[in-house]
Design goal:
The chain is an all-alpha fold. It is 74% helix and 1% strand.
Amino acid sequence: MSDSPAGGLDALQEHLFRIPEQEFNALVQELEQRRLNEARANKIALIMRFLRPRLAILKPRRRMTLLRLMCTPFEDILYNPGSPRKAIGKIPRNALKSVWDLLVENADANRLRQFEEQLAAMPMEEQTKDAMLEFGREFWQFCAYALRSVIVVAEGSTRLRRELIDKMGDDNHFASLKEVVSMLEVAEPIMTLRDNLSQGPIDVVSNRDLDAIISAFTAVNAQGPNYQECLIYVILARLADMASITDVFQRIDDAGAGSVITHVSDTAAQAMVSQIEDQIKDMDDDIEVAPDRETLARQAGDYVSTLAGAAKAIGQTGSRQQSRRVGQVRGELADKVRLNVLQEGDEATAALLASLLAASFSDFDDDDDPAAEQEMLEKMQDRIVSLRIAERYADDIGLGGEVEQRLADIETGLSKRADKLLGTLNIGSNRSKAEADLNSTVRLLDLIAGPESADELRLKGLRLLDGE
């Protein structure tokens, strides 16, 4: 039987991951060169799509194209959205084709062809960072002018605006278009900032980073303060913790350069909230693929940590509107944790406790199914661990009482199991089986009630087995 198409594609991707790095890089360069032939362009584009996962890992040097060059100033903020909505300060990759098509349709065709021919004639080894910056200066302004002209015309009429939105695909792509144009209009200072900033994610902004940021704001302010938001988006994309941008603002002010960031606080707050909202939407995907509740509890904790940092930072900006939005996001996150981390395991937990309490310790029969008992104990352990993880951040999203009640219920059930076990232990018990049951109960009690209670149970049980 022949492989299915899906199987064939999977096999192709697997093979592409096995190619040695040096050969893979050579393959990419060869494909980039062949793509210049219009007759081959579509087939090469299909192959490149299958190469993309490994391209993202290896990041080999690739031949520049006009589309890639257009995107270079804002490539830090490109993303693949997990939902149809668009995060402020992020440009979805699926909007780029409609932006490029609009440029091709409205720009000077002869000049665009000249740019393409000049770039195609440039050997790959000459496509250095400095050369691309020099080439890009004129090209980015060419793109910005053509696309801005389309927007200006469309904004003059409700009908024309609606037509442009429909041509772009939807309102999100239209919003992306406007952000792309703004980024292109200040492409040169953005490129200088990107080159001088530390590679992300930046945990600590160095003095060199700070100087680069101040210089970039000074440069864009010469074109208009509204362009400050473009720099905010680039900086947020580089920071390991978005909330630390308020510290950057404070350091700029302390350095006596506060006048260059007059329009940034609210923009940063809006972007942070919007991007966190988008991340929370992605939690639905985490729920689908999480192997267990413990993993999901840890992932939820990461979201809560990000949200807490943003809430603190936004509080410092004084934006009541964004603070309210943070509150709404917190409520949405709490609902997801309650449903998928807490309530999802309630029924199974009740069944586990009932089974553990129903276990017979009277004669510690060797006929008992140790594998089944071990599985129950492991599931209970996983449940306790996931609740303990959730306990760390539950108060931050208003779930402290709900987590505490579940832990208390489990502790009550396990204490009853411990009492029942102690009532059956004696010097005549099957020692190995009795110790196994004792140790497993001690381990669970340690997780739920702490080491003192667990140690007390262990010592009592051993004394009973020794006939003391």
